[in-house]
Amino acid sequence: MKTNPTRILRGLPLLALAAGLALSALTTAAAAAVTEVKLAGLRVRIGEPIQVAAQLAWEEGPNHRWVMNHPVPSMARFPSGEILVSYSLVSDYNDNPRNFSGLQLSKDGGKTWSRRLDFVAEHQAMIYTPVADSSLLGIPAYLYATSPGETRNFDATYTRLELGGGRAVLEPHGVKVVDWPWDLARPTGYGFFGPELVQGIAPRISYVPLCFDGNAVQVGGRLLATGYCLKQGDTQYRNVILASEDQGRTWRYLSTVADATGLPPEAEGPNEISMIQLADGDLMTVFRVGGGRGWNLRRAYSHDQGRTWSAAEAIPAFSVEPSLLRTANGTIALSTGRPGIRLWLSTDARAEKWQDIDIVDIHNRWAPDPTYRIGTYQPKPSPDGVVAAPAWQTSSYTEIVEVAPNRLLLVYDRSAKPSPENNGDLTRIFVLPIEIVRD
Fold it and tell me: CATH assignment of 127-326?
């Protein structure tokens, strides 16, 4: 599906915002430069990137893995308005002996950020979803077998962030996935939880490939969350919907969104996924099936609160970790990338047509020096001599949240890939303020 061209206007003064929209990161004491992108039926006003964190990548472990050059950032908003950004503090190879994420908090809509808080033991981002008392429930990314050899019952730590991030409640084994309808398998290899590790070195011997990933939606009195897994006997992922009736403590399988039917054998299979509820009450998911420009995202709908799903279809957006939301004015926004980072927008109620904006281009127009710029590098040839296309200096993992009606923040990273050139070549996490106006 062909996207419409964009027209970019630079250096516009930032207009004063309504008093009720004080959370918007576009609000500043002084006027700031704004990029306005004109699309069919939309005007998208993009502020300047705001740096959340800057860290020199480091090398560790017997395999000399690089840490903080693939930080896969994520973001969430507390019901009380505070904003949380998380990013990985371990390597992306899943063979590290522990998981760890850094958290930073903003109380002013993303303009300024706290120092790093290191208390969430996850590599992949949790699903942060609002619960009572203005708290955020952190649905764990990774789950463990409840006993050796168990393939249908799993648990993990219950995490609840209270007081706008001022207090964390952690309960070991407090999240349970029970009575899975079929046996799950544990894959090996890069990107698939790494090689087997011996007992005593790391807890990953009990890992199963059931991963909460994406987001959660309250539907029909239940909390529905997205995830992916590998069924025993399969070699490709499938993504699933899990349901909880006790606000995220106990989960059960509800449905499969898509399996690898119709995909080529080299596809990963449906995995990273995001879900929204449309204006008519239907659910829509968008999900990854492979990594790279040649792997378009797929989309499916549910008319019955997530119990069954339409056949998956390709959409123009591509590659990894989609983040999906429906704004107050009904615009459907999707961030994704690899290569690069793009914001995709649809003005129709079921997101049949898309237009897109190149976020890397906008970022690089702003970048004050090369250590802020998202460039490309040439990966090393594979063992069989295959030379890959140039890769971008970003994980291309993103998240978008609506901080006020029709005002978004997009989180993304600039990574010092493949490794830092010097002590000034930093990995940086940014949030980008975006306003969407319908014509």
Answer: 2.120.10.10
